[in-house]
Design brief:
Number of helices: 2
CATH architecture: Roll
Number of strands: 7
Strand content: 25-35%
Structural class: alpha+beta
Largest sheet: 7 strands, antiparallel
CATH topology: SH3 type barrels
CATH class: Mainly Beta
Mean pLDDT: 76
Low-confidence stretches: 116-127
Order of helices and strands: EEEEEEHEH
Helix content: 10-25%
Length: 190
């Protein structure tokens, strides 16, 4: 016996797809066959994290979602992705669906709307595009100055050892510091 009070949401066909190369896409799945999944208006999902120092003891972390047209400079809005290049397919949350629809509308109309998410501390300027660009430029300038002054350690100088990692902790392997920064550590000598 079915419960009529339980309402199911209509599937809009939107999916978040992670490719084997690590790239994340959001798109509407418009069809499939035995070898390909067809995506309508796919966009790559990227995030930018910006930190702002209020004082030496307090940093404000802001996260920005960036959706880029994955099919730019193409006449067709639908692309077939070989199934062997797809790692996972997931249902998107409401935020990413709203961001995707907003970005499609921006591309169609030329009106620019910027959405931010994360820890914005209710900063009214958090959605201001100029403020976002200023934070990014400040971070980039800081990194460039660190490189020029020689204060930034390169990978060749970095000392990394898996002996310093607590492998018994529950979320071992989920932190970037759990993994070696050296490519050679992942391949056998041939």
């Amino acid at each position: 016996m079915t419960n009529k009070s339980h309402k199911t949401k209509k599937d809009d066909g939107y999916r978040v797809i992670r490719l084997v190369n690590g790239e994340r896409l959001i798109a509407k799945v418009s069809g499939s066959n035995t070898t390909k999944l067809f995506l309508e208006r796919p966009m790559s999902i990227n995030g930018i994290i910006s930190t702002e120092s209020v004082n030496p003891l307090y940093l404000i972390k802001k996260e920005f979602l960036v959706l880029n047209n994955w099919m730019e400079f193409c006449q067709n809005n639908v692309v077939g992705i070989p199934r062997n290049l797809i790692l996972t397919i997931s249902d998107p949350d409401e935020f990413i669906k709203d961001a995707y629809n907003t970005q499609k509308e921006c591309e169609d109309t030329g009106n620019r709307t910027y959405m931010s998410y994360g820890n914005n501390d209710d900063d009214e300027e958090g959605n201001d595009f100029t403020n976002i660009i200023n934070h990014i430029n400040t971070d980039i300038n800081h990194i460039i100055n660190e490189i020029i002054s020689g204060n930034m350690m390169s990978y060749s100088e970095e000392e990394w050892s898996d002996d310093d990692i607590d492998k018994s902790r529950k979320n071992y392997g989920n932190d970037m510091d759990d993994w070696s920064p050296y490519l050679d550590d992942y391949f056998d000598n041939l």
